[in-house]
From TrEMBL, chain B:
Belongs to the ABC transporter superfamily. It holds the Pfam family oligo_HPY. It comes from the Bacteria. SUPFAM superfamilies: P-loop containing nucleoside triphosphate hydrolases. Keywords: ATP-binding, Nucleotide-binding, Transport. This is Dipeptide ABC transporter ATP-binding protein. The keyword Transport applies. The lineage of its organism: Bacteria, Bacillati, Bacillota, Bacilli, Bacillales.
Length: 333, 324
């Protein structure tokens, strides 16, 4: 089966005063129809830049320097701005973290809802309006007619995020990219929005890429998980593999540092240190200065990705020995 | 963490209203009822977690305790002495005892002031110790919160988020206070750094015999750090119980909904959620009766009209609900 989205060896770099610095260093992944891929990692690990690269929305000083992005078999990296514009909001849509900054404060919700319909469809005014009402009802806003006439500031955070989702869904996208869609919301509202995205995914058969740093959210919505650290993918696998059998020390650390409300025995363990800067030169594995299992080899050579199972990969030297000596590996986990 | 029976802070029926004034005559037309009748005792040496959604008045409550907001009604006693409604000058001697850690330490640091100077200020204002000793204290403090002595000569922008929060903590503990209000102290940090800061807070609590009022919207963090947890909704207290008890056996329908909404980092452990309809009502237009009745799945006619009493249902377990 051909993937909906296929990213191969993506390198995205930024021109800065310190020269050209790569924020994403060779990332590969794919998304199937009707599947949710979660990208997890701490802030600054390159997860948002990966999604912005797919959307072609990089800041002026950023560029895709290597790799390919294919969407439904079409290569996106060489497309011109106008061609990309035909995709954005049409078959690829994005939801952002802060709906207030993504919505235009001087236009009504209705105007902003109809904009993608105006650009990508040939519906007339009346049809557009009824589509907008239909969408708002679909995302769970009652009294949609009234909401259309409101300005963003008149809505609460949860309502704004619903409007954002409705706009993103306007043209029935096949791929939805959600960048921290619930981070700014309260837990009760977050639960509503996550359920909504999940329902819509099932009904419309969209592929979803969700960027988040909340492991709880990942466990709820993901089919597959990709863990990023300092621009690299350090581990990928199905959601069960990542949570029940994490292999990479960073993934383990990330899971151990999340407070668990159900587990009485759970003790919080922090990963020492913090994420390196883009301009920091680190030899070997970029996680080794913070890794409790780091060996001499980790300091010198960058590890390749080791296949753990069919879909499970981990970028760590520990698995080189593990594949040959299973019992030894047990000692690490 | 010892459970001393003596309360360090007694909060009794505290109210904080923000007046809404008419545009011309500046008459008070109505009030935003940010904190509505909160009564709670904070015990010496404990960590009291305060949870609730944004806009529930938890931060205003913390600020009112410290005298950063004036008190509308009620009484606040610190070690038996009334501190509610004291003037700025009268409060000075208590300010040494009560400190605050903010969510964004960068906003509370002067970008042109070296960290060492910022930390030294508290000693200049509140103590009479000499310059040399002050400098030494600052260096000791930096080491205590996990930074280096050399960091004293740096400026705020040179630090990462986690390091800045360490500076905020150093500032708060510098005068050896007994009570610290942590207002979303770890909310802006990444999980791995968040865990580091929580561990630091726990370590300092032991070494300085601190009492924390830990305000956060993150229930996982609150459960981890708190001895007791207070649940607030729209300025009012809904439930108060020892942490384990609250999470194992929540009684109030709001607490139940809140707990069921937390995304759990466990696959397949997805519980059936209690879906709350709608959103937090506006505190300027306060609902009659129980403030939660507009979203409560159990609401009855009584809830719409009569404000439920704050009562102790089990030892140490308080709840305000007609249906419990």
């Amino acid at each position: 089966m051909e993937s909906l989205l296929n990213v191969q060896n993506l390198v995205t770099s930024f021109r800065t005063a310190d020269g050209k610095l790569p924020a994403v260093r060779g990332v590969s992944f794919s998304v199937q129809e009707g599947e949710t891929l979660c990208i997890v990692g701490e802030s600054g690990c390159g997860k948002s830049i990966t999604t912005l690269s797919v959307m072609g929305l990089l800041p002026d000083n950023g560029e895709i320097s290597e790799g390919s992005i294919t969407f439904q078999g079409e290569e996106l990296t060489h497309k011109k701005e106008e061609e990309m514009r035909k995709h954005r909001g049409n078959d690829i849509s994005m939801i952002f973290q802060e709906p207030m900054t993504a919505l235009n404060p001087v236009f009504t919700v209705g105007y902003q809802m109809m904009e993608p319909l105006h650009l990508h469809t040939k519906l007339n005014k009346k049809e557009k309006k009824s589509r907008a009402v239909e969408l708002l009802t679909q995302v769970g806003l009652s009294d949609a007619e009234k909401v259309l006439k409101k300005y963003p500031h008149e809505l609460s955070g949860g309502m704004r995020q619903r409007v954002m989702i409705a706009i993103a869904l306007a043209c029935n996208p096949s791929l939805l990219i959600a960048d921290e869609p619930t981070t700014a919301l309260d837990v009760t509202i977050q639960a509503q929005i996550l359920d909504l995205i999940d329902d819509l995914k099932r009904d419309l058969g969209m592929g979803v890429v969700m960027v988040t740093h909340d492991m709880g959210v990942v466990a709820e919505v993901a089919d597959r998980v990709m863990v990023m650290y300092a621009g690299h993918v350090v581990e990928t696998g199905t959601v069960e593999e990542i949570f029940e059998n994490p292999k990479h020390p960073y993934t383990k650390g990330l899971l151990a540092s999340v407070p668990n409300v159900d587990d009485e025995e759970h003790s919080l363990e922090a990963i020492p240190g913090s994420l390196p800067n883009l301009n920091e030169k680190i030899s070997g594995c970029r996680f080794h200065p913070r890794c409790p299992f780091a060996t001499e080899k980790c300091k010198e050579e960058d590890p390749p990705r080791f296949q753990i199972s069919n879909q499970h990969q981990s970028k760590c030297w520990l698995h080189e020995e593990a594949t040959t000596n299973e019992s030894r590996h047990e000692a690490y986990s | 963490m010892s459970h001393a029976t003596k309360p360090i802070l007694e909060v009794d029926q505290v109210k904080k209203y923000f007046p809404i004034k008419s545009s011309f005559l500046k008459r008070t037309v109505s009030n935003v009822q940010a904190v509505e009748n909160v009564s709670v005792d904070v015990m010496e040496g404990e960590t009291l977690g305060v949870v609730g959604e944004s806009g529930c008045g938890k931060s205003t409550f913390g600020r009112t305790i410290l005298g950063l907001e004036s008190l509308t009604d009620g009484s606040i006693k610190f070690r038996g002495e009334e501190i509610g409604g004291l003037s700025e000058r009268q409060l000075k001697k208590y300010k040494k005892e009560m400190q605050m850690i903010f969510q964004d330490p960068y906003a509370s640091l002067n970008p042109r002031q070296r960290i060492g100077d910022a930390l030294e200020e508290a000693f200049i204002i509140h103590t009479n110790i000499g310059k040399k000793e002050r400098r030494q204290r600052v260096r000791d403090l930096l080491v205590e919160v996990g930074l280096n002595e050399e960091h004293a000569d740096r400026y705020p922008h040179e630090f990462s988020g986690g390091q800045r929060q360490r500076i905020g903590i150093a500032r708060a503990v510098s005068l050896n206070p007994s009570l610290i209000v942590c207002d979303e102290a770890v909310s802006a940090l990444d999980v791995s750094v968040q865990a580091q800061i929580i561990q630091l807070l726990k370590k300092l609590q032991q070494s300085h015999q601190l009492t924390y009022l830990f305000i956060s919207h993150d229930l996982g963090v609150v459960k981890h750090i708190s001895d007791r947890v207070l649940v607030m909704y729209l300025g009012a207290t809904m439930e108060l119980a020892p942490s384990d008890q609250l999470f194992a056996n929540p009684l109030h329908p709001y607490t139940k909904a809140l707990l069921s909404a937390i995304p759990r980092p466990v696959v397949g452990g997805k519980k059936e959620r209690i879906r709350l309809k709608g959103e937090l009502p506006n505190a300027a237009n306060y609902p009659s009766g129980c403030p939660f009745h507009t979203r409560c799945p159990l609401a009855t006619e009584q809830c719409r009209q009569v404000r439920p009493e704050w009562r102790e249902v089990e030892e140490g377990h308080f709840v305000a609900c007609h249906e419990v």
